[in-house]
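Render MOR1B protein in 3D.
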Amino acid sequence: MGDNAVLACSIRPNMTLATWKINPKAAGHCTMAYRPDTDMTNRTSCRKSINWKFRPDQDLTLEIQQVGIAQEGNYTCEVLSTEGNFHMTYHLTVLVPPRLRLYCDDQGSPVCQAVAGKPAAQVSWGLGSNSHLEEEGHDNGTVTVLSRFMACGTNVTTTTCMVFHPAGNWSESIDC
C-alpha cells in the first residue's frame, strides 16, 4: 500500500506488438500497447499512475505508482512476435498494514485493536489469557481485529499486545 509496483515483461526478438491488459477489481479495465514497427504507444482508459517504467522499445516493464487497494487485480503482458505469442500474468494483491491501538476499557481491562489491515491481522497477548476476538470488515476490504484481555486470577498489571501481519509485526504494552 502506497509503494510503487513494478511488473516485468520481456521483449522478444522480431516483436510485432506488446500489450498490457489491466483488470483491477475496483477500477475499470485498461490497456497499453506498443508497436515497434511504428514506434507508437497507445493507452485506453488507464490512470496516470499506471505507465511504462522505461521506453517500451527498450523495456516493457509496467510501473504502478502509489499502489492502493483499487489497483488489486490481474495484469497481463502479451507479446506477439514472429516466433509466437507470449503471455505473462500477474495477480496484484495489496497488503495494508494495520494500525495498532491499545487502551484500557471502562472496566480497566486492556483492549488491543489492529485497525484496518488487509488481510486481517492476528492479535495475541504476551501472557496467556482468555481473550475475546472480534472482527469488523470494512467496505474497502480491510479488517479491524479487536481483542479484550481477560486475565483469570492474575496480579499482572502490565500486559503486552502483539500484532502479526504479512506487512510486519508490532507490540505495545499497557498498564491498566
